[in-house]
Structures are given as structure tokens and as C-alpha cells.
Amino acid sequence: MTIKDPPRTPRPDSARTGMREVAERAGVAISSVSRVLSGHRDVSSVMRSRVLDAVAALGYEPDILAQSMRTGETMTIAFIVSDISNPLISEIALGAETTLRAAGYAMIVVNSMNDPDLELEHISLMRRRRTDGMLLSLADETYPDLRGALAKLAVPVVLVDRHLKDLDLGGMVLSEHRSGMREALERLHALGHRSIALINGSVSVRPSRERANAVRRFAKHHADTHCTVRSGSFTGTFGYDATRELLGRAARPTAIISGSNQILVGVLRALRELELKVPEDVSLITCDDSALAEFMSPALDTIMRDPNELGSQAASTLLALLRYEPIEPLNLPTHYQQRASSAPPPPR
Amino acid sequence: MTIKDPPRTPRPDSARTGMREVAERAGVAISSVSRVLSGHRDVSSVMRSRVLDAVAALGYEPDILAQSMRTGETMTIAFIVSDISNPLISEIALGAETTLRAAGYAMIVVNSMNDPDLELEHISLMRRRRTDGMLLSLADETYPDLRGALAKLAVPVVLVDRHLKDLDLGGMVLSEHRSGMREALERLHALGHRSIALINGSVSVRPSRERANAVRRFAKHHADTHCTVRSGSFTGTFGYDATRELLGRAARPTAIISGSNQILVGVLRALRELELKVPEDVSLITCDDSALAEFMSPALDTIMRDPNELGSQAASTLLALLRYEPIEPLNLPTHYQQRASSAPPPPR
DNA sequence: GTGAAAGCGCTAACAG
DNA sequence: CTGTTAGCGCTTTCAC
Q: Going edge to edge, which strands form the sheet with B76-81?
């Protein structure tokens, strides 16, 4: 059923009551209304109550847009992400939005779909919208035009678990990926694994680089252990291909670490196809928890962190920057959570 | 390390180049600049190129805020959700944002944390921000003050899988929960189940009501089958409690349907504690897919839908409303996906 | 303490 | 076709 003849009339209260009406009704100047509502102190109590009465009577609500126009502050923050449907990101977004909202800010979410060009467009568009600041979970830290675009930005920016070398744009909230990864590697080593593979996301972003570095550092200290790092993209397809390739070789790794929950899906698909049992045939550890990870059979060993806290801290850092307050770079912990998907390697 | 002495100087290009500078440089009137940039047709090509040159030379970017101030359109949509970290919601949000952005709109996300009072505050705040429209995934359709707040709204609203009786506020995009649920019930019945329980979310929102209705309708047509509906909240705690209670009884159900992915977590926890095997001891079906559901052991039977499409269609509907175009109410399909978590009931 | 006036950066009549 | 003018709704000097 199609609704015919949609209304052509202007929207109902397109004539919202403004400050002018309030001033008239209270019999005062429009600037006095502003003063009262802005909580200015030099206003007589008589004035205050007259204005407040009029406000209540008319149901007046200040227009945030007009305020922004005058003050230059939009009280709006942009959060540019690769893909909000990624559970890690959406949890970060929740933490960020909650903290921002408590401070009176609204959060615009934009998805770059991992396209650095689109990301640049978004940054520019958000600047034109005069957002007061930005939270960036960049798709590609190495993109050539990025630095220029960020340098041009007049508002404070906080990078969320991202790092641009030699570029100080104020805020940065990181996860300390190495320690969690090291714990996981040591656990595998203690179980007897001597061939371990990390199926890693894109090294164009910090988390993957840090994880790869942790593996390399581990390898350097454990000459008896062969470590492989396959870096690619945060996709199931990559996880699948890399797993098939790694396990199809004669000298197959006895343990796999998946570098993200998207990659994990591909790894699991490949393992299922290859009919390999976890942890009997191959041990499996993944990065970043999912709601169902602990209910898998076997329950998945996971390198954990607190994404809500990450988002919240990123927001707090941005708020501090907006207030010209001193900030300190944060490095939030990660840790290895043993469950049931790691075991000694199969006898060969 | 704390950074001392934060900059007290005003932000770098706080003196952005405006239309005025462009007009001066091009030697034309400011309104002519506006015309060229707005793609007005009655402009000479000489004028066009003069202006465009100046724009390019100065790197001028129109101020969206000021445009909004004049036109009354903010090109901003608010999406009010219970909790963006819910994977179902974040997928809907992705679909909505993608469609809105393609039409030039930005999306503000606000989390109500399932608090109807907070939700009302958000609605009011978004009105003050003059968002051009709202996408609402209400926390509680039955909240008394809600109707008033919505009626007062001057902008178009689209409810996302929500329904308010007798209130026509334009848009509504729904999921057709009943058919998927019916398929699932029939499958269970065919397997021989005669005692089935739905652990349902809050009946203050449409999806849970529809699912409960589907169960009741099924029960009416199958006198041989005992159906139980436990409605509560979309939380793991509720899922856990309800499962323990239902399975602790003498006449325990032989099949459980979980009404959301949050509830599912609680159900799984309870089943694990009770040491009940799926599907040997009890069959399990859940609503709305998760990335890992198919990799569980057993793979989880799921009543599926396309949340991205739901978000995208909701956005399209809102866009149509904004253009005063005719819209048609949508009812997107759900379907039962058999995997491996349903089987004949255990012999008694 | 309060009012009058000047814009924030842009668009939309209205003349010419 | 183009320039002039008048605001959108608010905040903020600046006088009184």
C-alpha cells in the first residue's frame, strides 16, 4: 500500500518560539534572556525569575545551531571508523559516546569502509561541519595525503590505537598489544610449540604492527621456535587464505594466532574444511574477545583488552584537549586469557 | 609524562577563508559566489570561472553550519539506539549511515542504554540541534511520555523495527518476525518436540511481542505441543535465570529459543552449568545471527534477517519523508536457518 | 544590572 | 545575469 498525497504543508512548528518571543513576553531585552539562560551572574533575581517564567510558559528551548553560529563551538565530535559493525569498534564507540555525551557533546559516526580516500573526504567534510574535534581510528596510517590533511585541521584530534610517526596532533590512546601477545606466545612455547604463526591484519595500522613486532621480538629470544607472520587485511577472506596456505605446507605451524575477529572467522572456516581439530591438531588463539568466544568448543583462548575503556579514554583525552588541559599519552593493557583452545602440539 | 604548558593561542586557522574573501578576490558580489557554488543555473560562464578560480586559489570550503543557519536544514540525522555495541544494532547503524551519507547526511548516534527517560532527553536534545530527522530504535514503546514527545516533533521520524499503535509519524521499517519464528517452531515440532520455550526479550518492543505472538499462534494450532514464553529483558542475566528456572522443572522443555544475542549468552552459560548437551539433551535456536554462531559446536540454528538492509531501508524511508515523497511501510523477511543445534528430543 | 546594536557565514528575495 | 539587502537565532561588546 502506497501512501498517496504526502503533506505539502510546511512542518508543524517550523515557527519555533525563539528568544525574541521570550523577551517580549518577559518585557525585557533579548540580551537579558540570553544572560539568564547562559547562567551569567550579573542578573538580578527579579530578571531571572521573569525570564524563567516566560521560558517555562512558552516552552522555549534554545537553538543549539544558532548558539554554535555565534560561539563557534558546535559541541559535536566526529568519530571516523572503518566499520561500526565491527564489534570491537562499536564497543569503542559506545565508550566514547557515553563519555562525550556526559560532557554535552554529540558524536557523529562516519564509516570509511577501510578506504583511505573516503576517509580523507570524511575528515574534510567534518571540518566543514565545524566539528569541535575528531576521534580517528584510521584505516591506513601510511596513506600519503593523510598527514597533510591532519596538519590542516584546526581542531584537536585523538587517534584511537593508531600512531603517526613524528606527527604530534595532540591525543593518542593506545593499547599495549605487545604484552598480551608475549603472554600468549610464552604460553604456547611452554606447551611445547616450536612453530607458531600469526595471521595478522594490515600493517598499515598500529595494532597489527605491534603484534608482529611482539612476535619478532619473541622469535629473537627463542631460537628454538619458528615464528611466521602473515600480514594482510582485516577480513575473513584473508584469514581463510592464509590459514589454508600455512597449514597446507609440510612444515605446518602447530599453533595459530588470529589477529582480529574478522580474520578469526576465516581461520575457523579453513580449519573446518581441513578437518583439523582444535586444540588436538592445532592450537588457536585470537585477539579481542567476542561474546560467544567463551562458548565455542573449545572455548577460545583470547588476547583481551577493554574496548569500552579505550573509547572512553579517547573521549576524555579529546575533552582535555578541547579545554587546553594537559594530557598524558595512554597505553591501556592487554592480557592473555587462557581458555581451552591451546594444548601441547600433536606428536609428529 | 605530562605535557606542560598547553598552547593558549587560538586554534590555527580559526580565521578560515569565508565567502567574503572569495568574492573580493574574484571581484564579484558575495551573493554571486553563493549562486555559483549552489549550482544556480543563471550564472554566466565568465562569472562561474572567476569564482571557481578564486575558490581554488584560496582553498575555500563552504561552512555547513552557516548554510544550515540560513536554509534551516542541518543535513544531520539522529539515530537513537539502546546500545550501539549490540552487534545487531551496529549492523543496522552501518546500513543506515551508508545510505544517509550517500545522500549527504551525517548521522549522530546516541545511546539510551535502554533508559526511556534518557531516550526522551535525547529526542529533545536532538530537536534542539535541529536534526532534520530521526531514526528511532526505541527502548520502550509503551513509555507514557513518549507519544507526546514524538507528536511534538516537527521533523520526520522513522521507527526501526518498532511500532506505536495508532500513532502515525510517517515511517516505519519492520522485520517480519513471525514467519521466521513459525518456521523454527515447525521444524522443532517435526523433530518431535512437544515442549518448547521461548526466552524472550522485553515485550515493550515490537520484536519480542511479535515473536511471542508467533509462538502463541503456533500453540493454538498444535494442541499437542506445550509452549512457554518467558518475557524479560535483553540481557544475559535474564537469559541465564530463565534457562535455569525452565530447565530446573520436572516437565522441562526439550527445546529453547533464545530471543536475542544478549539473551543467548545467558542461555549458553546456564546450559554449560547444567551440563546439558545441545542438541542431545535440549535443542537450541537463537534469533539474529552472530559471526561466530556457525562455528559453535554445534553450529547454532538461527532465525536470520538482514540488519544492514533494515538500516538502509530505514534511512531510505527517512530520506523519502524528507523529500515529501510517498513511502510504503516495509516488512523485511526473516527466515529460519537450520544448522546443527536442533535434533529430536531425548527419549524420556 | 540592563538594553541596543553588531555580527557569526551564508542564502534568498528583490531590484536593476 | 548580477549586486544590494535583509535576516536565520543567538552571544557579546559597549554604553547607559
A: A330-332, A170-175, A157-160, A133-136, A76-81, A106-111, B106-111, B76-81, B133-136, B157-160, B170-175, B330-332
Query: Which of B131, B295, B328 to probe the A interface (max A CBs under 10 A)?
Result: B295
Q: Which residues contact A81 (CB under 8 A, 6 or more apart)?
A: A89, A92, A93, A109, A110, A111, A112, A137
- The SS3 call for residue A240 is helix
pLDDT digits (tens, 9 = 90+) for B240-296: 999 999 999 888 999 999 999 999 999 999 999 999 999 999 999 999 999 999 999
What pairs with residue A227 in β-bridges?
A: A196
The answer on pLDDT for A203 being more than 50 is: yes
DSSP-derived letter for residue B225 is -
Residue with cell 504526502: A6
Check if residue B47 sits with its Cβ under 7 angstroms from strand D. Answer: yes
Contact: B111, A97; criterion CB under 8 Å: yes
- Please give the Cα distance from A286 to A284 (Å, whole number): 7
> What would the mean pLDDT of A88-115 be, rounded to a whole number?
98
Residues in CB range of A252: below 8 A, 6 or more apart: A195, A246, A282
Closest partner residue to A154 (CB to CB) among B4, B13, B308 is B13
Q: In 3-state terms, what secondary structure has residue A2?
A: coil
The residues, ordered by sequence, that sit 6+ positions from B35 with a Cβ below 8 Å of its Cβ are B42, B43
Residue with cell 593506545: A174
Q: What share of chain B is helix, strand, coil (3-state, %, to 5)?
A: 45, 15, 40
- Mind listing the pLDDT tens digit for each residue in A167-196? 777 789 999 999 999 999 999 999 999 999
Instruction: Respond yes or no on whether the N-terminal peptide bond of residue A279 is cis (omega within 30° of 0).
Output: yes
